[in-house]
């Protein structure tokens, strides 16, 4: 299974493919191939035993001409500079594909948060903000939770920023606790958005949701909510995994029972009635819908050749490598690419930002209805682009996002029209 490929190079290749498919110039690729700003910081933290540890942190801002940067902060021992750069690029295209007024941002700290006490985790979270706060702001860069971060961590970060600037500023972070200006519906938004696109994909393919078998690689926040919401539509969870391993249960599992078991034991491994497997076994389980909801580079060519699902919905960022993409396309497996499938999280983060700035808060029903409308429209726009150009859905999603970005850059005078457009304009 994958894991060694450089996500930054993968993101660049995806951009190049879409730029070429649109007939755009090399100028557009040059504007999009790397972050506008990249910050690396060292974060000193006093540990509980009195020792001092220094952690490395990053923040990447990809294309800030479109609006403030937007994207999560992850705490993970495998965080790298190139991973954060790639994730910020994917965020630019994700916000564009669902029509949000943002550029892409992403942050990370090289740390295993499971090895920190609660106090150490808080000091690290606040230290990260102290290191990068001049680059943040509601009109500059608006972080959110990501892998191994949550509403509590974002709450600490928000409080630290407000302490530094000496003013209330809830719109500087999203994914906050409700008591600090968070939005109803935010916690489940990524999973809900993924399920909306799965439902639309199955309808497009003429397949029923009821009875569909689901495998979820990465039974964390997004994976759990996706599994639960699919179950509500009549689907059946047959395989799941987390960082400790995977399980398969061909007869199906009740999602609530599996969530409760993981909360009690720390893992899905050992769930009663299941058999143990590894990540490969979950990705290649006998199912109709595969939801990769873990980390990057999980589906390479070897895995893609063994996938049995009819639909792959990328709740994670960058889970499929380019050679894996090639195999999925050859096998005509319907892919809902990450920049569309998991855009529900950033969409409801946008709603939170809007509510914070207006100091007027919506009901959960309003949030979910607005998310539904935006995700359905974006899915249909991407499918229309794929049909119009005979493109695979990932390339089509990038084409749709980059076309919108290109038009904005032209209106600003930063990008010339491609040669064929210029010729048409000259011909009158």
Automatic annotation (TrEMBL):
Active site feature: 106
Keyword Zinc included in the entry's annotation: no
Keyword list, A-Z: NAD, Nucleotide-binding, Oxidoreductase
Feature type site, description Important for catalysis: 146
Matching SMART domains: ELFV_dehydrog (SM00839)
Keyword NAD in annotation: yes
A GO BP entry: L-glutamate catabolic process
CDD domains referenced in this protein's UniProt entry, alphabetically: NAD_bind_1_Glu_DH
GO molecular function: glutamate dehydrogenase (NAD+) activity; nucleotide binding
Gene3D superfamilies, per the entry: Leucine Dehydrogenase, chain A, domain 1 (3.40.50.10860), NAD(P)-binding Rossmann-like Domain (3.40.50.720)
One Pfam family here: ELFV_dehydrog
Binding site for substrate: 70, 94, 349
Protein name: Glutamate dehydrogenase
The organism of origin for this protein: Symbiobacterium thermophilum
């Amino acid at each position: 299974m994958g894991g060694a490929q450089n996500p930054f190079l993968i993101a660049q290749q995806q951009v190049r493919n879409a730029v070429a498919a649109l007939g755009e110039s090399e100028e557009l690729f040059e504007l999009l191939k790397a972050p506008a700003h990249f910050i690396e910081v060292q974060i000193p933290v006093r540990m509980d035993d009195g020792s001092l540890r220094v952690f490395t942190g990053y923040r990447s801002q990809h294309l800030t001409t479109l609006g403030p940067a937007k994207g999560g902060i992850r705490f993970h021992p495998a965080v790298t500079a190139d991973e954060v750069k790639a994730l910020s690029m994917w965020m630019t295209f994700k916000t564009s594909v669902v029509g949000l007024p943002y550029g892409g941002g992403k942050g990370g700290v090289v740390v295993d948060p499971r090895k920190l006490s609660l106090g150490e985790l808080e000091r690290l979270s606040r230290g990260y903000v102290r290191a990068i706060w001049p680059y943040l702001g509601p009109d500059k860069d608006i972080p959110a939770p990501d892998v191994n971060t949550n509403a509590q961590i974002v709450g600490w970060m928000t409080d630290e920023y407000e302490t530094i600037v000496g003013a209330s500023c809830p719109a500087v972070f999203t994914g906050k606790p409700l008591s600090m200006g968070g939005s109803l519906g935010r916690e489940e938004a990524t999973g809900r958005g993924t399920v909306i696109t799965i439902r639309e994909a199955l309808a497009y393919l003429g397949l029923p949701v009821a009875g569909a078998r689901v495998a979820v690689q990465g039974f964390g926040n997004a994976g759990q909510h996706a599994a639960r919401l699919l179950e509500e539509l009549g689907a059946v969870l047959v395989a799941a995994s987390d960082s400790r391993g995977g399980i398969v249960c061909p007869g199906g599992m009740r999602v609530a029972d599996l969530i409760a078991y993981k909360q009690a034991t720390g893992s899905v491994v050992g769930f009663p009635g299941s058999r143990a497997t590894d990540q490969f076994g979950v990705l290649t389980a006998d199912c109709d819908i595969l939801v990769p909801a873990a980390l990057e580079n999980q589906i390479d060519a070897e895995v893609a050749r063994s996938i049995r699902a009819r639909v792959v919905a990328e709740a994670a960022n960058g889970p499929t490598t380019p050679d894996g993409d090639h195999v999925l396309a050859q096998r005509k497996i319907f892919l809902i690419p990450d920049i569309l499938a998991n855009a529900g999280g950033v969409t409801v983060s946008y709603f939170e930002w809007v509510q914070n700035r207006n100091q007027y808060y919506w009901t959960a029903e309003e949030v979910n209805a607005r998310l539904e409308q935006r995700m359905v429209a974006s899915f249909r726009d991407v499918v229309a682009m794929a049909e119009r150009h005979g493109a695979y859905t990932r390339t089509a999603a990038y084409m749709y996002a980059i076309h919108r970005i290109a038009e904005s850059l032209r209106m600003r005078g930063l990008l010339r029209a491609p040669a064929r457009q210029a010729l048409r304009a000259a011909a009158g």
